[in-house]
């Protein structure tokens, strides 16, 4: 088929899908996802022309990690979205094997998009080109090609994912890279005009042995001097309470010294999400808030996601989360606009003491807020039950260990995730349950877990159990509406 016909088919398939949705029980209602094909990293996140612009990696032709395009949806309320459209196609000599990830920056009324053109020859040798696109208010754009044509000496062609930040009127670009000795690193470039870039150097941290590649770096300004350097390292060894996924995403916080290209006095690496399915987050700033969206998925684990064979699509994006800097860590909370999803309050309970309680819900699209006092109990267990399958979440306040267990689900990824969570006398949980994604914020966002699940039955009950008397200060549940693409 000719390229043009292929794209016409994609457009037709999208239109068909939105005019008569199927009844696949795993399709998410309020998380961004595509009707078909494979979605991965969020890209080019920005607020431009009075709308949030959410670009993302999309293979519109199948559920494999190839044919990477940039697609786009726009919204101003996180309920009403524009219909997904393909923006960047891998069709030039400098991006023919994929328009890979990158960021955006608004300058002179133009949304400047930065991405990595991935090129491979017949022997699978890779070349990476950092490219620029001018995207305009009327939706037209010009792909202007490479602005950095090769990685510097001493690094491999794993050189990608440009993100822009500005300091003292100078533009900086941070890129993920691999050294020739196969160590993950980040490089910083700078520019006076956002067009011409020169290498500043390799970002100095004390993390010299920290995986073989750092993907999707973000430099996030927290206050005058403090920056969070957020990245997705590959090649860390799993430990009892961390690094349990094949690849990680997390951050260090320090004082950014651009003269010395160093993140000084930085904190220890902290994973940004402790769930099974979270990777390659991107952060942008709007109205003074640092807003993060992540990919709900994991590379190289395709067999954990049965929606590819049963539905022909893979992977949503997370809800937008605001990052707040407190006690030298980043707390996460849902962006206020996410409240637009609330349709009706279906539960409102106060001051109830029990050892066992069943929250029966006649919806699988809910936001749940729970606030407990441990009272005489030490262990709280939540069971998300889908008839005879369930996911459990157990927290023991004596050990401060939280365990999420997917072993009692029949389809999809299994296993447990285990992490430490500090609490005092109480525990607060804020959860968003969609048809196959669950996002949980613990203790006002001190930790989060994002995971996918593929239940056989379309019903949900949440059982709350404890080893002794437990006090539920408050439980509120909202039924959530689905987002629209029009
Ligand atoms: C992260 C990543 C990026 C790359 C993109 C390609 O998931 O591997 O490093 O740019 O995906 O789709």
UniProtKB/TrEMBL annotation:
Subcellular locations according to the entry: Cytoplasm
Similarity comment text for this entry: Belongs to the glycosyl hydrolase 32 family.
GO annotations of cellular component type: cytoplasm
Organism: Clostridium saccharobutylicum DSM 13864
Upper classification of the organism: Bacteria, Bacillati, Bacillota, Clostridia, Eubacteriales
CDD domains, A to Z: GH32_ScrB-like
Function: Enables the bacterium to metabolize sucrose as a sole carbon source.
Protein known as: Sucrose-6-phosphate hydrolase
Gene this protein is translated from: sacA2
Single GO BP term: sucrose metabolic process
Domain of life where this protein originates: Bacteria
Residue ranges of domain Glycosyl hydrolase family 32 C-terminal in the record: 339-478
Keyword line: Carbohydrate metabolism, Cytoplasm, Glycosidase, Hydrolase
Pathway participation: Glycan biosynthesis; sucrose metabolism
């Amino acid at each position: 088929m000719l390229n043009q016909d292929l794209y016409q088919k994609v457009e037709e398939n999208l239109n068909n899908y939105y005019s008569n949705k199927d009844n696949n029980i795993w399709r998410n209602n309020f998380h961004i996802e595509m009707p078909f094909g494979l979605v991965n990293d969020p890209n080019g996140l920005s607020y431009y022309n009075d709308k949030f612009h959410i670009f993302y990696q999309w293979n519109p032709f199948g559920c494999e990690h190839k044919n990477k395009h940039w697609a786009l949806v726009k919204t101003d309320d996180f309920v009403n979205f524009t219909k997904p459209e393909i923006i960047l196609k891998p069709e030039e000599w400098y991006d023919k094997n994929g328009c890979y990830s990158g960021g955006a920056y608004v300058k002179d009324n133009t949304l400047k998009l930065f991405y990595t053109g991935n090129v491979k020859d017949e022997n699978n040798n890779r070349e990476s080109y950092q490219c620029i696109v001018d995207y305009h208010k009327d939706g037209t754009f010009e792909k202007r090609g490479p602005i950095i044509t090769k990685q510097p000496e001493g690094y491999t062609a794993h050189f990608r994912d440009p993100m822009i930040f500005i300091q003292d009127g100078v533009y900086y670009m941070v890129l993920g890279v691999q050294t020739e000795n196969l160590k993950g690193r980040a490089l910083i470039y700078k520019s006076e005009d956002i067009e011409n870039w020169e290498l500043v150097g390799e970002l100095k941290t004390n993390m010299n042995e920290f995986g073989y590649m750092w993907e999707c770096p973000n430099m996030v300004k927290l206050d005058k001097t403090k920056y969070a350097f957020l990245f997705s390292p590959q090649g860390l060894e799993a430990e009892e309470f961390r690094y349990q996924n094949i690849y990680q995403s997390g951050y260090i916080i320090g004082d950014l010294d651009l003269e010395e290209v160093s993140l000084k006095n930085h904190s220890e690496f902290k994973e940004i999400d402790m769930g099974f399915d979270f990777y390659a987050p991107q952060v942008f700033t709007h109205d003074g808030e640092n807003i993060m969206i992540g990919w709900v998925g994991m590379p190289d684990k395709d067999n954990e996601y049965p929606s590819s064979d049963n539905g022909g699509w893979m992977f949503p994006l997370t809800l937008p989360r605001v990052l707040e800097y407190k006690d030298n860590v980043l707390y996460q909370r849902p962006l206020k606009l996410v409240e637009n999803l609330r349709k009706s309050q279906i539960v409102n309970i106060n001051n109830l003491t029990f050892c066992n309680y069943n929250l029966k819900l006649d919806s699988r699209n809910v936001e749940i807020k729970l606030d407990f006092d441990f009272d005489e109990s030490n262990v709280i267990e939540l069971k998300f039950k889908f008839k005879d399958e369930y996911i459990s979440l157990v927290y023991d306040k004596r050990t401060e260990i939280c365990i999420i267990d997917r072993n009692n689900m029949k389809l999809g990824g299994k296993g447990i995730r285990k992490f430490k969570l500090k609490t005092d006398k109480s525990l607060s949980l804020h959860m968003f349950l969609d048809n196959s994604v669950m996002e949980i914020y613990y203790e006002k966002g001190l930790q989060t877990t994002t995971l996918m699940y593929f239940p056989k039955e379309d019903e949900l009950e949440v059982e709350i159990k404890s080893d002794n008397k437990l006090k539920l200060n408050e439980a509120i549940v909202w039924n959530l509406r689905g987002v629209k693409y029009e």
